[in-house]
Amino acid sequence: MEDEKDIIVDICKYIYLNWISKAESQRDFASKCGVEESTVRRIKNIALGTSKTDYNMSLKTLIKICQKRQMTLEDFFGNINR
């Protein structure tokens, strides 16, 4: 079984590679999803391995992002699961 930190990194990588990196800007992505831009930066930094801090994304944040992407949590985690 994967370590908790590895799962968080996988979640952040998926969000960053599939959505944030394709957005007009981090600010635009944050605004459209109803989350703080600092949250988007944290996700990006975890995904790219440039953050020295841990990040525990709230379920509320993940729900907001998935809803804006018209994806259920079940589908999201299905994509994360290898």
TrEMBL record:
<dbReference type="GO" id="GO:0003677">
    <property type="term" value="F:DNA binding"/>
</dbReference>
<dbReference type="InterPro" id="IPR010982">
    <property type="entry name" value="Lambda_DNA-bd_dom_sf"/>
</dbReference>
<dbReference type="InterPro" id="IPR001387">
    <property type="entry name" value="Cro/C1-type_HTH"/>
</dbReference>
<protein>
    <recommendedName>
        <fullName>HTH cro/C1-type domain-containing protein</fullName>
    </recommendedName>
</protein>
